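Batch manifest, entry 17 of 40.
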Amino acid sequence: MKREPRRLTVAVAAVLCTALALPAMAETEIGRPFEDETWHEGMIDVRALDLTRTEVVANGFAGNGLEVLIPEGGFRGLGPLDRLEPAPVEAFYRYHIRLLEWNAAFIGKLPGLAGLYSSSGRGCIPSTPDRPGWSARGLFGPPGTAGAPAGSVPIGTYLYHVDQAGICGDELWWPKTSLQQGKWYCIEGRVRLNTPGRNDGLFEGWVNGDKRISQTGIQYRRSGESGIRVRHMWHNVYFGGDWPTPNRLSLIVDQVAVSTQARVGCMDPFTDDNASLHRRAITELHARGLLDGCGYRLACPNRTISRGEAAALFRRVLALPPTDRDFFADDGNNRFEDAINRLAAAGVVRGCAPRSFCPDRLLTRAEFAAMAVRALGLSRDVPNAFSDDNGHWAESAIDAFAAAGITRGCGTDVFCPNRRLTRAESAAFFVRVDDLDQPFGLGSVPAVPDYPPPGDLPPIPPEERD
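Output type: structure tokens
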């Protein structure tokens, strides 16, 4: 019977930094953008199970991404490796990750670096002189554990090293670090192997460019093991070790990269918004999983949006339930029909005329204000905010919109109610709407159930092992 991993016994030097300047994007030896179905070409240990539990999806961090599923009763969602040739003694990795359904009842593994030269360094098989090896995969825990807020998932490093406390890897939790479900995060790590026989190895980790941990004093390899190197990038999404997950787990991973020279750095999802006044809002709304691009790494910030597009964004932010009622006659062939009906059922939209929504008509700033005020149930008993909307049909909504802090106007004392809304402006508005409507777009996260003792369980099938 495998034992639960134990905590790392050497001292942890946690470094919590804010607003670190990201390095320039380093040249990478390995890159996995997951843009098409050939994403696994050149990988080692690709199993049929890995392919049936993954899917290339359009809503990746930048372009397509790889959705990974661990079904109820399963262990492994993904497990292939990329090999670094020649193998270095130091490497840096980066990937972007978004947890979709992650009510994990126990710990498990995420991607990370490894040096697998035998059966050790995994599966509760520690390194020995006859079977050397190490691994430093990512680590996740149940939501709300290891110091994480309720619903958030703690992360760390699952470390196999020479001085580990037990037969399984040590849990090295990154201090005060957890992932909210539904959001995109940039995860970076660095492994510098020790001088053979000395405890001078290093692991460092970053989230969204902020250093979260710097762990020194690690012995990855013994004296005489200079041939043990950073050999693999392990694309691992794995639950537990002894018994299967009682809950379906799913995530999206994208833009995996490994460098042997320097930090890879976090990718900017869009290349055309750097000059936009609302660049930060665009990036933030995308990070929350609420904004898709208009093309590969394109945000089209100055393009105006239609009423149908606005409905789709409102549906994501508000997480509205479906409805069987068809409210309008002019959206039957429109791709936003479901979103429009959900908003109508919730009283957020009322149409542009009887039985008409005008989904393709460009949205005005006044129309957005009216939708947002209904969605949030804001009071309209507020002072007059602008001078250019007096007598406008949406004046009271615009005033409520301003009183809630969602808009600052388009100039001094003016709102420009009839101006068409751009994608950049809508991003700024939606971030503020989303902040007022917590929890955003995720529904309630279920409580983590008590995990049963393993008892007399059958052995893990070979195709499920990591």
